[in-house]
Amino acid sequence: MESNKKNYGGISMGGKWHEVRVIGVVEENAMTRRFFFEFTELDQFHFRAGQFVKLKIDDDVTRAYSIAAAIPGIKRLELLVVLKKDGEGTPVLFEKAQIGAKFLVSEALGNFVLPDVSDLEDEVCFIATGTGIAPFRGMISELLVSKYMGTVNLIFGTRWMEDLLYRDKFDALDHIHPNFHYIPTLSREKRESWKGKAGRVHPIIKSMYKDHRPCDFYICGWSEMVLEAKAHLLQMGYDKNHIHVENYG
Ligand SMILES: Cc1cc2nc3c(=O)[nH]c(=O)nc-3n(C[C@H](O)[C@H](O)[C@H](O)COP(=O)(O)OP(=O)(O)OC[C@H]3O[C@@H](n4cnc5c(N)ncnc54)[C@H](O)[C@@H]3O)c2cc1C
Q: pLDDT digit string (tens) for 37-57?
């Protein structure tokens, strides 16, 4: 029987499961891989940018992963996963997920999605560390494709240049869309070739939003960063209804 050790924000472990086959694996860096799956029976996989799926890694281990792809209604699914060496699930996933291997995934789940553009404040700020950037690929594409004219900031914190997940993709969007700003910050990088911001995400949020201008915040990642960022924003006077979080645990 499947273990119910994990609680996915109150979302039940039941529901529909779909078979997928691994069609590609890309090493983003030493610890992080992009896994590409194709549905073997479903013609179209419906989801909203920002949602996640549950992945049955083996009979006893099921884990949640944000959907890291940009186009809704396709037959393929991309997940971005960091290896937790002492974890129960990811070492098995990294070992098993070779081309052709089959897994089961749930339907798309969760409420971490954008509202109608008309319900957004003048500015939207996405804040992520590590693989917490995954749901923002789709959400940012959705906003930019919808011709949203407000400012869209993405503050992405990680340690080293090698950890800048999807860097080329966000750099490209930054070049194309005058209202999109990709703001990576590195907490450990000392190499001179890094010309960007240094340090953790929190001082950057504080300094960027010290004028307290209206903004909707979307925060995603591991609980320490998510809770700290939310607490800072609340302390700065932002209303909790404008702070949306996806907590990886
Ligand atoms: C809604 C949702 C979406 C998620 N999306 C993603 C995603 O897109 N990509 C992704 O890599 N993970 C994502 N996760 C986390 C994922 O579900 C697993 O928890 C993760 O892959 C570790 O699984 P494991 O079995 O290897 O480790 P476990 O055996 O579950 O790990 C044990 C402990 O380590 C903690 N932990 C695991 N990894 C880290 C880390 N990198 N930093 C800090 N603490 C950590 C866990 O919280 C847990 O307490 C998501 C979680 C949720 C709830």
A: 999 998 888 899 999 999 999
24, HSE (Cβ side, Cα atoms, 13 Å): 11
Q: Which contacts qualify for 19-22: CB closer than 8 Å, 24 or more apart? A: 19/102, 19/103, 19/104, 20/77, 20/102, 20/103, 20/104, 20/105, 21/100, 21/101, 21/102, 22/97, 22/98, 22/99, 22/100, 22/101, 22/102, 22/103
Q: Which atom of ligand 1 is nearest to the CA of 84?
A: 26
pTM: 0.92
Tell whether ligand 1 has an atom less than 6 A from the beta carbon of residue 245: no
Query: What are the tokens at 196?
Result: 């960007």
Instruction: Measure 63 CA to ligand 1 centroid, in angstroms.
Output: 8
Contact between 25 and 35 under an 8 Å Cβ cutoff? The reply is: yes
